[in-house]
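Customer ticket, subject: "Can you confirm the structure for Peptide chain release factor 1?"

Message body: Hello, I'm evaluating your service for our small team and ran a test protein. I'd like someone to confirm that this is what the system normally returns, since I don't have a reference to compare against.
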Amino acid sequence: MSPTLRRKLLALAERREELERLLADPGVVADNARFRALSREFAQLEPVAAALAAEDRARADLASAEAMRADPELRELAEEEIATAQARLQALDQELALLLVPRDPRDDGNLFLEVRAGTGGDEAAIFAGDLFRMYARFAERQGWKVEIETDTPGEHGGYKEVVARVVGRGAYSKLKFESGTHRVQRVPATESQGRIHTSAATVAIIPEADDVDDIVLNPADLKVDTFRSSGAGGQHVNKTESAIRITHVPSGVVVECQTERSQHANRDKAMKRLKAQLLDAERSRQAAAQAESRRLQVGSGDRSQRIRTYNFPQGRITDHRVEGLTLYDLPDVIAGELDALVERLSHEHQVDELARLAEGT
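Agent reply: Thanks for trying us out. I re-ran your input and got the following:
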């Protein structure tokens, strides 16, 4: 480990000790908000302290084993213990380096999933439906809940647009690298001559922020429209103007919600999503200004970037952000088995962050 990373680790260990003292301060305990924030930070630093303690024990074991090597009768045993201690130190060195990667506080939270058909007409809408089902199946395998908030079906299947809320611990951490343009190459079901077409759909992953209630929007900046819901739900849903569309005029962001029976409930859900989108957009602008060269723009919702190609004739899926990230199990991926992609993208993000930390940026 480089001296720069080692200094950062020691600084984190000192911060943990400081937090331990602060959490014992009656003044901090009396302030619920501050106590909660410091407790959360303390919990995040606990793994660092535990790994450093394990490293100290491994170093002590190594020193003890090296001391035994001078005894001819214990030399063989000493060599075994030295090898074990050295392997343990090497593993801990890697573990500590990964613990330095800043943890996104939004990782454990829920998210809004937006999938929209791009270029390609009916086939693009069908592909958008395939992508949505892929994410829904992945969510189901994780034990998460998927709640569709609004959808516009395509004329020949799929969706022109679908927006859903994904609820489950760690949802954002696993899906945050999915934002961007997804391209498909295949023979469409609507193609009569067997020609391969290229179509696209866009995906945006927007974290559901805990602090959206703190965001204050000027009512004058909002244009609120009501309309009749188009989905299933019985006579009440389809015959009353319970659906809500809110436009944030300064930014042009538009959100809709039509899943609830009452206009009030739909408005609440739409406002929550609008605030989450505006907050995410601001965070993305700040992140882009600080890290223009990053390959994985986490949570940016940037749908102009082509990130992945799904080639059905070859059964191939390629992520264009990571060199060599090509899998030949496209049917399984489309069926919701995203683990290999999720893990590789997460690893690449950690590598990027470690390189940035080592450079001291």
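A couple of notes from the result: Residues 232-237, 298-302 have pLDDT under 50 and may be disordered. The longest helix spans residues 32-68. Feel free to reply with more questions.
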